[in-house]
């Protein structure tokens, strides 16, 4: 048997080499190209919430930004972006923005907390005894936060009310006349005892003389630069003129150009409350498209991409400033109140005394209770912000430093509750190197659950302009997309912070109300960014820190185009975009589509100001679709590479079938000599098995250097797969012809080889004869056309994805959402498939010409010219190519349309184009057999016939 097979292969050496070359090319291509199917893929696991729709679908963060808790349990705290500072560059943003399918890529750069002094209004009108010429109203303030559970007494405030006229410093911006007052006169400075401003209010006595009235809040004590004072340590003072008409008039120490207070019927003073606001930078246009920031503007104007810091010059009393524009929240979202007790001190002596002497005298005096008052920071917040937006505002809010909070750490208790761990306090983080006595939130002396870091935006040793921010407009966060609907829309950038009691004791302590932030940046609750500036100003803000300025972006929130709700197709569309973002950037990419709120019980340690230990329920976000980058096989590419083998099998099967047809007489003789059917089949399979084995061994040696040249990683173990692949390919291709050979009847030795067409057809003309010829051996025609059709179908799908869908298409297949992304190796595989299909067409035409050699010689002898014979073969090749190309293009069009559920005109145009290419290359392939026509030995063939 072995000798028989070897003699046959040697006897038909040319044909054997051709078959071996085909198997070698297909097997080598398959092994090498499958080395490129390992690709970065975003694997999505877990179930998804079908009722959710976040403002964004994908979250991009710096590499390694995921917390351990998030990595373990896929749980994310509300406003988790508030603790992420920088890490992404503007180039990262551009890469994300350029990914196909990305509709909006909105960057956000968390900068840190900036504190602002707000006022708690206190109405003391009813505490004033209008019969007294002079009196002092003492205001004892108890600050309350966290639903009244945290309480602290502040230093008293004082309201000096006199019927004598009062003159106030005019703050005229002239370096020559700093002591000018509202009566038009100039007065010498008065030392109130270490105060910052030597021109206090002056009381006009009945004899016309004036005496200074030193406020108790003017002394900064022995604080050094960088040290701060809590709101609890800040006494405050008002000098009030009780006019003859019963109204009240107060002055202003706000700065140059500040007008005197208008006479008012009610005397409302203000206690100070320092509140931290988280400052972030956004791209205004992207933020508008993502959450409707511009449409949420309720006062002033919206933030624009043209906003830049402005510089103000130094005047007599105000240092030069660099003011950064911002839009502020129209709501404070802080639970901070003040309960005040009023008492009246009659006829005290305060005029002409130093601040310390005034404080001593007033503290020693007994007062008469004069009422109580409760105020809320939120009551006058809007008024305060409107005043800061005014065109004549003297300055902005100080921005010399920012405070950046870190993440909260947790330990899990046996019952599954998370205990938030406390960290040491560092009160001086609220200071600024060029200032002494800056205020800090009183609740900052409470427990800290997160570390705080001070970032000096200005060199403390510099004498340059102060830095500040000023609001240019107000936006209502509750008008932003998804802000108020916390229960349905998780993972929002501006989510309102709130937790509720998780056990009866905690609910009772909170009065069945949610716990809100109280103004402690180190506290557990982290508010969203409520101050927004333009992203383009961040490099100027961090000019002391080149690394921060180069990578200021904390996260990029991505909204995928065409995704307006959850569906399997939309989920796959989001996954495909996320995968491409991860591939291009190498950053942490999370899919937020389908995220859902999940209550989490958190235990908070008791506070330093009376708040008991609480167990609270917090709506964390469960990222329902966990995502991770894995090395996975691109099944679409693997399918394309398998098609290379399929087409090769068709080509090989056609060739073996032709060989069996040629040897029908020989095989019939063997049957007559007693060879059993199985031995005849084994001989045919043995021949193709030898070809396959040799091709496989050659492919092993060829694939490794070829992979190195193409920069594709192919391990030796994978290269060794070439042998079984080639052998299996050869056996599969030869199986049907071998079975046919085994069924050869001995009488076949007496019958000529002819086509299988069952009825005679009368052809008219060259074209008609070409049609008849193709139907004479329909199996061969189908094999050739099918091989070409497979290649054209693959090429049509890839061309449709590339041209009509810009490289990626998402749709459904058999009920599953799938995405197809075209890569270079895919195009190479499709090209190889088409090429093998063309070779199969050429082989079919070659076999047709060879089998009909005598017939063609007869036509030439009867007067057919060579041109007519060439046209005949060309028509057959063209029709065969047309059949395969149209079938393949139609199948590819149907597959692409099925995938996307639509047939756009561009898809049809692509299908028509690939069909035309298929017909063209098939026509070119038909040229090869025409060369054989000129070599036909007409005389010998006619003699044999």
Automatic annotation (TrEMBL):
Record's protein name: ABC3 transporter permease C-terminal domain-containing protein
Keyword Disulfide bond: no
Protein family (similarity comment): Belongs to the ABC-4 integral membrane protein family.
GO MF term list: transmembrane transporter activity
Membrane topology: Multi-pass membrane protein
Domain ABC3 transporter permease C-terminal, first and last residues per copy: 640-746, 829-931
A Gene Ontology cellular-component term: plasma membrane
InterPro entries: ABC3_permease_C, Macrolide_Exporter_MacB
Record-annotated membrane-spanning stretches: 638-660, 680-707, 719-742, 782-808, 828-849, 879-901, 907-933
Protein keywords: Cell membrane, Membrane, Transmembrane, Transmembrane helix
Keyword set includes Membrane: yes
Classification of source organism: Bacteria, Bacillati, Actinomycetota, Actinomycetes, Micromonosporales
Highest taxon in the source lineage: Bacteria
Coarse class of the protein's main subcellular location: membrane
Pfam families in alphabetical order: FtsX (PF02687)
Subcellular location: Cell membrane
